[in-house]
């Protein structure tokens, strides 16, 4: 190469290396764990029509916005339980999501219904680690969204489902280890994107692991843990955000992205409360909500009993165990705390309140066990004869998910046939009691 060419090349490289990196902005609006709460809570928070209005307000005039949902759109209210989730996805099409991840409760009505959710949604639902027996993916692992001339790769990730569902609902489908799956796709997307985002419905341990050990993913938007973060989590220039469940908050993450480094150089994050008293609802969404809530009202808004106090979720768990013992005649009953989805308010109760507490179609199963074989969590402070036989009533979910990681913390307990839906049993018990105290 002639010397003048070498000098020109060196000068060109020097000039290029001194040019400032291109910085582009990206705004991520995000939700998680909405759980079919079409209408606002008793405290006036959330509701699809109000959430839609907030999303539209935040997106108005925003040329760099995308809207993401981190899973568990279904399950949590009567409209989802009665109609197996589909109305929730139909109404959610009006919220303007650009992408969503699968949540564990999307499988509560079986994997074939989860397929229908994906078909119903007018936005992509992604997951990189849900596979079948031959490792074929349940849905697309990622989607690349283009906004403000940025190619944003959104990879879906799902928590380990081995203790969060029952085999009959999952069929052949299962989750692969999260970190390995998302890291593999992130590495492959490096040349196809300017920024990689993990949209994960994952555990707290998963969050920490991805944030601290997967540098290929600099932005993480999560769900599954229902309590929103007070402040974003960050590590070595990477950021993780999560908002409160039930549609009570909308997150807004504003990023400045270095397109050369494919990473944010700065960010700001805020949580926007969804308060029905302060937001004018989106009329088109409100009309669809009313349509479905009217369908539900005739079925579940029947007078039931009167509660003398407000019961916390922990107190509701104890109340359910009492109801199961009295209705079945079992010596012991155990209710997994994670299955209690709402409080019981003070005052007149409707059947709807029990549906909100127990949206799952779990049935009660009974087994006979020697006192010495009963788990400590079941016994509490009660004394038993180790050789005597006792009856224990649990849900089919608890019976199917035994092990050291389960709330029951035991293995090998064999239960018999079911004795009916837990929700129906609680409703019958409340109606007989009339006064709950």
Would you give an account of this structure?
The protein is α/β, with parallel strands linked by helices and 437 residues long. It folds into two domains: 20-292, Purple Acid Phosphatase, chain A, domain 2 (4-Layer Sandwich), CATH 3.60.21.10; 302-436, 5'-nucleotidase,  domain 2, CATH 3.90.780.10. It contains 14 helices and 21 strands. The strands form five sheets. It has a six-stranded mixed sheet, with helices on one face. Strands 6-7-9-10-12-11 form a six-stranded mixed sheet, covered by helices on one side. Helix 2 packs antiparallel against helix 9. It is globular and about 75 Å long.
Question: What are the defining features of this structure?
Answer:
single chain; 437 residues; alpha/beta; Purple Acid Phosphatase, chain A, domain 2; 5'-nucleotidase,  domain 2; 6-stranded mixed sheet; globular
């Amino acid at each position: 190469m002639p010397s003048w060419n070498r000098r020109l090349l060196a000068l060109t490289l020097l000039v290029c290396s001194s040019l400032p990196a291109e910085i582009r902005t990206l705004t991520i609006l995000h939700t998680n764990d909405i759980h079919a709460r079409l209408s606002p809570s008793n405290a006036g928070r959330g509701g699809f029509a109000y959430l839609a209005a907030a999303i539209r307000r935040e997106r108005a005039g925003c040329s760099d916005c995308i809207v993401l949902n981190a899973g568990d759109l279904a399950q949590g209210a009567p409209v989802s339980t009665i109609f197996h989730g589909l109305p929730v996805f139909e109404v959610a099409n009006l919220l303007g999501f650009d992408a969503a991840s699968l949540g564990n409760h999307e499988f509560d009505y079986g994997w074939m219904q989860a397929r229908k959710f994906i078909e119903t949604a007018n936005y992509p639902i992604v997951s990189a680690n849900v596979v079948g027996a031959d490792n074929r993916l349940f849905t697309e692992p990622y989607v690349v969204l283009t906004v403000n001339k940025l190619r944003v790769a959104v990879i879906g990730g799902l928590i380990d489902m081995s203790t969060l569902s029952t085999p009959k609902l999952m069929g052949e489908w299962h989750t692969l280890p999260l970190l390995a799956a998302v890291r593999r796709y992130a590495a492959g997307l490096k040349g196809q994107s300017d920024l990689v985002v993990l949209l994960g419905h994952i555990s707290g341990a998963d969050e920490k692991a991805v944030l601290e050990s997967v540098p290929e993913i600099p932005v993480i938007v999560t769900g599954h843990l229902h309590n929103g973060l007070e402040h974003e989590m960050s590590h070595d220039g990477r950021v993780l955000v999560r908002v409160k469940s039930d549609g009570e908050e909308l997150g807004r993450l504003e990023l400045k992205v270095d397109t050369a480094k494919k990473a944010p150089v700065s960010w700001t994050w805020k949580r926007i409360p969804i308060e029905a008293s302060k937001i004018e609802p989106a009329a088109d969404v409100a009309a669809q909500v009313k349509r479905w809530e009217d369908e539900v009202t005739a079925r579940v808004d029947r007078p039931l009993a009167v509660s003398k106090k407000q019961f916390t979720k922990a107190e509701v768990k104890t109340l359910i165990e009492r109801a199961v013992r009295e209705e079945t005649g079992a010596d012991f009953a155990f209710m997994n705390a994670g299955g209690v989805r709402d409080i019981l308010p003070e005052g007149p109760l409707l059947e709807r309140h029990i549906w909100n507490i127990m949206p799952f179609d779990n049935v009660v199963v009974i087994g006979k066990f020697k006192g010495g074989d009963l788990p400590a969590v079941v016994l509490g402070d009660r004394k038993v004869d180790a050789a005597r036989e006792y009856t224990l009533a649990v849900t089919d979910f608890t019976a199917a998910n035994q092990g050291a990681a389960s709330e029951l913390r035991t293995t090998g307990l064999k239960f018999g046939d079911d004795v009916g839906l837990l929700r129906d049993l609680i409703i019958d018990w409340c109606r007989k009691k009339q006064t709950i105290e």
